[in-house]
């Protein structure tokens, strides 16, 4: 396979009949990813491939790490985002801090990327084991409905409102009297 540059692919706009299947948050098209994997299989490294195909070094390096982890399966997109339990995260982080490599841990636990180990380790360093626990999803629930007012509280509020209204009317009367004088 020839690993020559894919000229103009980055700026190509699909026509109505074409389908562009881009991964979320990826600057590489499906065709570019396939070409990159073919180059990886030939033994080329991420920097050489990025330069040869004139694509982002970061995107190529990310794909290369997934290729090292999963082989050609790195091209298969999973339908949903994988979620990992607190126990798995905790064990992975403990073993990583004990000296095991991110890549070995990612292979053993079937992680989608070795970068998960890095982010989990960082979260644990920052917030302890609690930071690895799942966070509630979605919008937080609002406060409970206010308790119904007692008869006494209703009367207190009515008195306060009437006193304020009375004070307003007195002030208005005084201002009108000043204007006449």
TrEMBL record:
UniProt record similarity statement: Belongs to the IS150/IS1296 orfA family.
SUPFAM superfamilies: TrpR-like
All residue ranges annotated as the Insertion element IS150 protein InsJ-like helix-turn-helix domain in the record: 89-141
Secretion signal, residue range per the UniProt entry: none
Coiled coil: none
InterPro entries: InsJ-like_HTH, IS150/IS1296_orfA-like, Trp_repressor/repl_initiator, WH-like_DNA-bd_sf
Protein's name according to its UniProt entry: Insertion element IS150 protein InsJ-like helix-turn-helix domain-containing protein
Species this chain originates from: Corynebacterium resistens (strain DSM 45100 / JCM 12819 / GTC 2026 / SICGH 158)
Stretches for region Disordered: 127-154
A GO MF term: sequence-specific DNA binding
